[in-house]
Every structure is written in structure tokens, then in C-alpha cells.
Specification:
single chain; alpha+beta; 7-stranded mixed beta sheet; 17 helices; about 20% strand; disordered N terminus
Length: about 525
């Protein structure tokens, strides 16, 4: 509607008062709710087919022709050009899920979409949106309480964490690698960066390099530096290296004020040049005298200083970024020095090996076997950029899932077993709730059933038959939709090592409910051109 019609409000004398601009558009009541719910459901439908070990991939092409191939829900929605404000709210659900726990983004999107679908039926029956929102809130609280009873392990050993990582990556593009082999490296990497029950994510680096098959992906006990040596004459490999991390420029100092030098003779010029050379050589001499083999400099290094370092047999790098410098400190035990005057031995770090490897036209440096041993890297390879990018996303998900399990309270069965059991408990609790809110609580349970139903459908089962079968199996024990060796069965997921962090499930329930109730309660959309 045009603003001249929709933006009017009656006042005392009956004359209309214009409150919106001429170009504003306004949608109200059922039309607004219908539009918002349809947009939210469309977002959920976009990612629904990617859920589970047999989920399908999406190819996303932007206006410049760049291509992304993935089945990661957060990546799909991030790459899509979504304008509808309600649809954008569901995108924000997946973003929040990704930032908070690093996994479960597709599940959150599917659940939010199904909650909207259930709410749409109620709205058609003139049930008030507030009643629906309150019922969904009650159901969420019941579900979260039940979820605590589903936790099967809180003290997590490496085998359990490997199952968590593998479950997170199953169905994602891992190229020629198995999720099982990646899971072992991921858990080893997380354990290296773990201290006192928490994981320092900055000490766990994921570095990518295309040009070789994904089977070349490996765990590096240390840091990978995406920088090349300063000088071609420097060594490409140093064993048992003594390492300095220098936070200063190794070049001629510049004054902070404008100064003019009056050079009146060749002798004066020679003296000025010699003074500069002495200053630049002094930097190199200080490192040599301290017994340094490898220097990582966060500032700039003069060409002449680099030449002196090369002549002395040192391997050096300049403009090392702050995160990399800190990772080297964590790996080698070095301190970051701001002055080269009297470098103390305890300010230097050590590593078993520092070596430079060449990849096509670029070089990367590997600092391995650091004495502090607190930094670790997963070196992701891929024959093409698309393969490498998707493998990197899978590794990121695996790492985040393991960290979440360690830091936020244990694991629950996967394969939709937990959703089935929570849905049953919510449905049972609905009987004790009075009024129309009972209907919304039951609808919440029905929405949870969308997860096993979607898993079954994506795995090739009839979705209704799959749902009925897995419901029945959970009456006598735990059961979910299990895909193993190409076969789809209804079985105990714990027996097959299918485990999810409980925090992922908690975040799914909370964020999906919040988004759905917020959209349902909107009855007026005002937009300005």
C-alpha cells in the first residue's frame, strides 16, 4: 500500500494525519504474518536437503561467477543474497548457532522453519500469536530440562571426542579422507591446545594450501607461517633451532621531526653511509651474538640487514602478523622482545625443526617440535580450491564440536535419537498444561519430529515410515536413523559412535524457538523505499 493510504491515522476532527512518507509500504495483520512465515519456511527448505550423512550439496554462484559448493547450512545462507527481513532473521539464527557452538546450523534452520509451519496452522484457526509464543516458550523449557537427562557422558575420553568430531563431519565433503582419520587428528590438535578444561582456540590453527589431494592433509606439531624468507641466500632448513620473536623494525630509525642534513663533502657522505651501515649491521650482530638461528620479526627489515643475516646463516622473516607471532611464542617458549640490546637466553625459544616448503609459486614455513608445545596446526590440502574449502569447513566443524563438548557439558546420542526422545517428553508434558497453550506445546513436539523425518528422507527412507519406526524403537531403548557402510537402519547411535555435544542441541532449541516466536508475533511490516 502507498504511504498516503496506509500511513494515515484519524485524529479528533476526523481529518487524517499523515505519519509515513509517500514512498513507505506497509503490510499488516494476516498478510504480514503470512509473508514472514513463508519467507522463514523458504529459508528452512533451502537447507533441509543438506541435513545428515546423506545430505546433498548446494552450488552457489554469485554475480561475479565465483562458485561455492557446500552442504554447510551456515555457509549456504551466508552466501545467499537474502533481502526479506523475516528470512534474514532465520539466517541470523544459523549465524548465532555457528558463532556459539560451531555446529547444528542446519538443524536450527529446519526446526525454526517447522515451528513456523506449525504456527501458521494455528493462526489460520485464529489462535492468538501470543498464545503460540507462550506455548513454544513452555515447550522449549521442558525440552531443555529433558535434554539434561539425555547426557550420556560428561567425562570425555579421546575415543568419545573422536566420535563427536566424526559425527560432526559425516556427510560433509572430506575428499579422499575419511571422517574417522580426520577425527583422530582433530582430537589430538584440540588436546594440545587444551589446558585446565578449556581450549585456547588461538593455539589451534587451520592452514590451507591447494595443489595436492586431500589425503595429504596432516597434523603439524607447531606453527605454519605463510611467509617467505627475507633473502634467497638464507637456509631453507634449520634443525634444533634457537628462535627469536622480535617486535621492532630492523631498519634505520626515522626521526619524528623534519631535519635537514647539510653534507658538504664526500667524507661526510661516506661517514653518514657508514653510520647507517653500522646501525643495520648491529641488528644482525645482536641476533648472531645471542645465538639465534631463526628470527621472526613483526616489523620491517632493511635489505642490508637481511643481507647481513643471510651472510651469517640466519633464517629470518619480516612483517609477521601478530597472531602468527603469538602462536610461535606458544609453540617455542620464546618471549616477544622489543629491543635487541642484551637479549637474554630465556627470551629465546627452541624448535626441533624450522623448514621452508615450496608450493607452486609460493613458500610456507613450518616450525615443528617447539619446546613449549602449546601450538598445533592442521594443514588442509585439496586438489582444487572447492575441495579444499569444503574440507576446511568440515575440519572447522569437527574442531568446534570437540571444543564445545569439552567446555560445555558432555554429549548426547545423535542420529535424531535425542530429538525423538525430547519430543516424546514434551508431548507427554503437554497433557498437564491448561488452555490453548497446550496445543502449541504439542506442536513444538511435532516440529521436533521434523529432524528424524528429514534425516530419514535424505537417507532414502520413506520419511513417515522412518519416523514411525524410530519412535517405536525408542520405546524400549535409544534409536536413531543410522547410515553406515551404505546401509540405512534404525539402531542405537551410541553403539555406532554417533554423538553430539549437548550444548549444540541446547543452542538449537533456544535459537530456533526465539526466531520462530519473534516472527510469529510480528503483525505489521513497514518499509521505506
Amino acid at each position: 500500500m502507498a504511504g498516503s493510504q496506509s500511513g494515515q491515522q484519524q485524529r479528533g476532527g476526523g481529518r487524517p494525519m499523515l505519519i509515513l512518507g509517500e514512498d513507505a509500504e506497509r503490510t499488516q495483520g494476516k498478510d504480514a504474518r503470512s509473508s514472514n512465515i513463508s519467507a522463514g519456511k523458504a529459508v528452512a527448505e533451502t537447507v533441509r536437503t543438506t541435513l545428515g550423512p546423506r545430505g546433498m550439496d548446494k552450488m552457489l554462484v554469485n554475480d561475479t561467477g565465483d562458485v561455492v559448493i557446500t552442504n554447510d547450512g551456515a555457509t549456504i545462507l551466508d552466501e545467499m543474497d537474502i533481502d526479506h527481513p523475516a528470512a534474514q532473521m532465520l539466517v541470523e539464527v544459523t549465524e548465532s548457532q555457528e558463532e556459539s557452538v560451531g555446529d547444528g546450523t542446519t538443524t536450527a534452520g529446519v526446526l525454526a522453519g517447522q515451528l513456523l509451519s506449525e504456527a501458521e496452522d494455528f493462526l489460520d484457526q485464529d489462535i492468538h500469536p501470543t498464545t503460540i509464543a507462550e506455548g513454544y516458550g513452555l515447550a522449549r523449557d521442558i525440552a531443555l530440562d529433558v535434554l539434561e537427562d539425555e547426557v550420556i557422558e560428561e567425562d570425555l575420553d579421546d575415543e568419545t571426542l573422536e566420535a563427536v568430531a566424526e559425527s560432526s563431519m559425516t556427510g560433509k565433503g572430506t575428499g579422499g579422507l575419511t571422517a574417522e582419520s580426520l577425527a583422530e587428528d582433530i582430537v589430538s590438535a584440540v588436546r594440545t591446545a587444551q589446558e585446565n578444561g578449556t581450549v585456547n582456540r588461538a593455539d589451534l590453527n587451520i592452514v590451507t594450501q591447494s595443489g595436492e589431494s586431500s589425503s595429504a592433509t596432516r597434523l603439524v606439531d607447531g606453527v605454519i607461517v605463510d611467509d617467505e624468507p627475507l633473502d634467497e641466500g638464507m637456509p631453507r632448513s634449520v634443525e634444533n633451532a634457537t628462535i627469536a620473536v622480535v617486535d621492532k623494525d630492523l631498519e634505520t630509525a626515522e626521526t619524528s621531526i623534519d631535519v635537514e642534513y647539510n653534507v658538504q663533502s664526500a667524507d661526510q657522505l661516506d661517514a653518514a653511509v657508514e653510520s647507517e651501515q653500522r646501525e643495520l649491521k648491529a641488528y644482525a650482530d645482536a641476533l648472531v651474538d645471542a645465538g639465534v638461528d631463526v628470527a621472526f620479526v613483526t616489523g620491517d627489515v632493511a635489505d642490508m640487514t637481511a643481507g647481513y643475516l643471510a651472510n651469517a646463516g640466519l633464517l629470518a622473516f619480516e612483517s609477521v602478523d601478530d597472531d602468527t607471532a603469538q602462536s610461535i611464542v606458544s609453540a617455542t617458549g620464546a618471549s616477544r622482545v622489543a629491543s635487541l640490546d642484551d637479549i637474554a637466553a630465556d627470551e629465546l625459544g627452541a624448535a626441533e625443526s624450522v623448514h621452508v616448503e615450496k608450493f607452486d609459486d609460493s613458500e610456507m614455513t613450518f616450525v615443528e617440535g617447539g619446546t613449549a608445545g602449546e601450538s598445533v596446526s592442521i594443514f588442509v590440502r585439496g586438489g582444487t580450491g572447492h575441495v579444499m574449502d569444503e574440507l576446511e569447513r568440515a575440519v572447522e566443524d569437527g574442531v568446534d564440536a570437540v571444543i564445545t563438548a569439552i567446555e560445555r557439558g558432555g554429549v548426547v546420542p545423535g542420529a535424531a535419537s535425542t530429538e525423538i526422545r525430547v519430543a516424546r517428553a514434551v508431548r507427554d508434558a503437554a497433557a498437564g498444561i491448561e488452555g490453548r497453550q497446550q496445543l502449541a506445546v504439542e506442536a513444538f513436539a511435532n516440529a521436533l519430529d521434523a529432524i528424524p523425518r528429514t534425516l530419514a528422507e535424505n537417507a532414502g527412507m520413506d520419511p513417515i515410515d522412518g519416523l514411525v519406526e524410530v519412535r517405536a524403537a525408542n520405546e524400549s531403548g535409544r534409536a536413531g536413523i543410522v547410515v553406515e557402510d551404505g546401509d540405512v537402519t534404525v539402531a542405537d547411535p551410541t553403539a555406532h559412535g554417533i554423538l553430539d555435544p549437548v550444548a549444540v542441541k541446547e543452542e538449537v532449541l533456544a535459537s530456533a524457538t526465539e526466531a520462530a516466536t519473534m516472527i510469529v508475533r510480528i503483525d505489521d511490516v513497514i518499509s521505506a523505499e
